[in-house]
Every structure is written in structure tokens, then in C-alpha cells.
Write a structure and sequence with these properties.
This protein has about 160 residues and is an alpha+beta fold. The chain is built from 3 helices and 7 strands; from the N terminus they run ββββββααβα. α1 runs antiparallel to α2. The two termini are about 60 Å apart.
């Protein structure tokens, strides 16, 4: 229901240490982790970390993987000459595509791969690299850039 499984410790030792005479130490502390995870599948019991507590600490190491944050992308400005050229080129590519010999899966795969490669080439030829910044919003345009630059130069509130 919660997608959790009982975690098995890497060092199965007692987790509760009794201060009461005659009462046995026991294992009462449990940890539940994500079901089916190969990275989060067991924990460690640290009896030497209990300090003044009568319970041993339970820990798990969670790796933090490096994340790629894209800071630039290829783009075609709307209603630009580049966009028009790209659309014309793609239309031409589709019109000139030879589909007369699509008799099996392999020939279809070759035509699709050729189409993808030609469209990618057209995209790379007509698009331009833009940096993704806080102003990378749909409403942000060249007018906004000019106005911002004008303000930065003058530092006047009217700009």
C-alpha cells in the first residue's frame, strides 16, 4: 500500500539496551524503505552511537547523484526568418523522401532514420543557441532585452 519493505540491517545486532536488571536487550527498532530499490535496501545499526539513550542509532546512506542542469538550448524564434526557412526545408525534405520501396521493416527503418537525420540537420542549420536565464519566458522577447539594456545603461526609472 505504501510501497515500503522492512529493511534488513547490514549488521544484525540488538537495537535496545535495557538498564533494568533482569530485562533482556532486544531488537525493537525497525526501518522501512522503498520497495524494490537497489540503492535503498538496507541500513546500519550503530550500537556505539547510543550515548545516553537506550536505543542504538539506525542509519542509511542515500547517494546524491549529480544532476545536469541545461543552461543553453537551440531555438527558433517565432515568426522569424529562421523559422520560415526551417519549415520550408522540412517541407522540401518530406516531399523529396523516397517511399517507393517500403516493402519491409528494415526499409521503413532506413527511411525514418534518413528523415530524422535530415530534419536534425535542418534544425541545426536554422536554429540558434540561446542561454536559459530567468528571462527565458514565452513573453520575454527582443523588445524586453532592449528595454532592460537601456535601463542598465541609464539606471533611470523611466527606462
Amino acid at each position: 500500500m505504501f510501497n515500503l519493505d522492512l529493511s534488513l540491517p547490514t549488521n544484525p545486532v540488538l537495537t535496545r539496551y535495557s538498564d533494568t536488571t533482569g530485562e533482556l536487550d532486544s531488537v525493537i527498532d525497525l526501518m522501512f524503505l522503498c520497495s524494490g530499490s537497489s540503492k535503498l535496501n538496507n541500513h546500519v545499526i550503530h550500537p556505539d552511537w547510543q550515548l545516553t539513550s537506550d536505543h542504538a542509532s539506525l542509519t542509511i546512506s542515500i547517494s546524491i547523484e549529480e544532476e545536469f542542469v541545461q543552461t543553453a538550448k537551440l531555438s527558433l524564434p517565432k515568426k522569424s526568418d529562421e523559422e520560415e526557412a526551417f519549415i520550408k526545408e522540412v517541407s522540401s525534405i518530406i516531399k523529396s523522401l523516397d517511399t517507393s520501396n517500403l516493402s519491409n521493416q528494415e526499409s521503413l527503418k532506413q527511411v525514418v532514420n534518413l528523415l530524422a537525420a535530415r530534419i536534425k540537420h535542418a534544425w541545426n542549420a536554422n536554429s540558434r543557441k540561446v542561454n536559459i536565464i530567468k528571462h527565458s519566458k514565452k513573453w520575454w522577447n527582443e523588445d524586453c532585452n532592449r528595454t532592460l539594456n537601456k535601463y542598465r545603461e541609464s539606471r533611470s526609472l523611466k527606462d
